[in-house]
Description:
alpha+beta
Amino acid sequence: MSDETLNLLQGTLDILVLRSLLTGPLHGYAVARWIRETSEDALRIEEGALYTALHRMEKRKWLRSDWGLSENNRKAKYYSLTERGRQELEAGALSWTRYAEAVFKILGAREREAAS
C-alpha cells in the first residue's frame, strides 16, 4: 500500500470532521451527531477517535476553538474551520473522491466483464 493511499485512508475522519464544520462552529458531540445523521446512521465516530482528531487538527491550525454553551446550557468547546482547514478540506475531498471513484470502478468491473 502506498503512503498516499495509507494517508488517504487515515485522513477519512479528518475530511468528515472538516466537512461537518463547513457551515459553522460545532462542539464535538454535535460533530459526531452530524456525521451520523448525514450518513443515515451508516457512520458512527468513536468519541476517543473524534477528540484525538479534533486536537490533532487544531494543532495543525486547520481548526480553532472557543468555549461556549451547548444547547443544554453546558460548557462546550466549539470548533470552527480556519482558512487552512478549508484548503485541506478541498484538497482532501478531491483526493478522497478520486479514491472512491477508483474503488467503484473496481467493484463494477465484474459486472462489465460479465456483460462483455
